[in-house]
Amino acid sequence: MANNLRPFVGKEQQFLQEGTYGENFIITSVDRILSWARLSSIWPMTFGLACCAIEMMATAASRYDLDRFGAGVMRPSPRQTDLMIVAGTVTLKMADRIKRLYDQMPEPKYVLAMGSCATSGGPYWQHGYHVLKGVDLIVPVDVYVTGCPPRPEALIDGVLKIQEKIRKESNFARKKQERANV
Amino acid sequence: MGNYFNNIFRAISTIAVGMAETWKAMFRPPITLQYPNERWQLPVNARGILFNNVDDCIGCFKCARICPVQCIYIDTVKALPDEDLGKASMGNPIRQHLVRFDIDMFKCCYCDFCTTVCPTECLYMTEEYENGVFSRENGIYHFSKYSPPEAMALRRREQEETMTKALAKEAALAAKKKAAAQKGKETAEA
After folding, report:
1. pLDDT of res. B35
2. Facing residue for B129 by CB, picked from A4, A136, A151
3. Residue A178: its pLDDT value, please?
4. Which of residues A180 and A91 earns the better pLDDT score?
């Protein structure tokens, strides 16, 4: 395939120090290769709340194809997911459930707030008596994608930003942090 | 018996119809957009992130007033009488300093009302749409051309101005009252 159609090859090669000691030869740290494995298979949860979910479906479909980034496996259970895409208006009734779903996810977990409603309450931020004013009030959000709704490209951009975040993280430092939290 | 063979024939023929569709799709070029490398040519009226060209903005508050979610925050300071801030590109005179022009893109619902009412056409929607950010503060776009200390100085200037004006008014009122009282006294004496 032409090189311009594989945008992240160069980045991955740099990340894993491929080609430093010759062709087809990788010298890297365990930490980095774990990060690389994690970022190339972010499984999101099937979790649509409102109209943004339609854009999320479009993103996962063949035209935009979220699976190119390893993030197309929408799992129906929170136990199998790494990423929660909160796509849509979070009502107060749903907020409890979102918190529970977030708690049920296994630990290296990320949250992407998609659209105006999930990031800040959106059109309901002022007079919405039934809407949570931003999902970051109940779960820690890693990346906010704005738009009403965002274009599928914007959602892909958000997923790429989460990948950037994972790339910068150290797994072992994270484990230590988790143990300290417990 | 005839029904049995009819069923078999129908099974084969319907599968053939479906497979023909799949076979056709095999030779179609892939429709996937290779997003970070390729992009759509967006239509002319596509709505993206708002941008304000502050050099043209006259601080008329029209966008902030019409915004249905009130996500545009504007603060202005009146220019002094001898201060000339120039004109906007469409000829409207600029009469106030725009010390704050913030748009909270998290709350924006992309209705395009603000750009319609803008008299100088300085507020418009760009074709940018990738605005994923890592924190909530970064969703607020600041457009003012004054730095925070400059804006603070301008605000203080306005405060002082109003204060001196109020003091002068009070003094004038007091003087008037005093004069009236004196006049009343004089008349009473007379």
Report:
1. 85
2. A151
3. 67
4. A91
Residue B106 has its nearest CB partner, among A62, A63, A146, at A146
DSSP helix/strand/coil, B175: helix
pLDDT value at B71 more than 50: yes
Domain assignment of residue B72, yes or no: yes
Residue B3: inside a domain:
no
Q: At A9, is the pLDDT very low, low, confident or very high (cuts 50, 70, 90)?
A: low
Judge contact between B155 and A163, C-beta under 8 A: no
Task: Choose, out of B33, B106, B108, B131, the residue to mutate when testing the contact with A (most A CBs < 10 Å).
Answer: B106
Which residues of chain A approach chain B closer than 8 Å at the C-beta? 4-5, 7, 62-65, 68, 116, 119-123, 125-126, 134, 136, 142-148, 150-151, 153-154, 156-158, 160-161, 165
CATH number of the domain enclosing B115: 3.30.70.3270
Q: For B104, list phi and psi in degrees, rounded to 5.
A: -90, 100
CB contact under 8 A, A144 and B107: no
**Residue A3: is its pLDDT beyond 50?**
no
Question: B127 at the A interface (CB within 8 A)?
Answer: no
What total number of domains does chain B contain? 1
Rounded CA separation B133/B148 (Å): 23
Convert the pLDDT of each residue in A36-72 to its tens digit. Answer: 888 889 999 988 888 999 999 999 998 999 998 988 8
In whole angstroms, what is the distance from residue A140 CA to residue B89 CA? 45
Task: Determine the structural domain holding residue B111 and report its residue range.
Answer: 50-148
* Nearest alpha carbon to residue B100 among B148, B136, B65, B68: B148
Q: Would you say residue B177 lies in a domain?
A: no
Nearest to B67 by CA among A65, A122, A14: A122
In a domain, B158, yes or no: no
* pLDDT reported for residue A5: 44
What Rg, from alpha-carbon coordinates, does chain B have?
33
Whether residue A62 and residue B69 make contact (CB cut-off 8 A), yes or no, is: no
**Mean of pLDDT over chain B:** 90
CB-CB under 8 Å, A144 with B135: yes
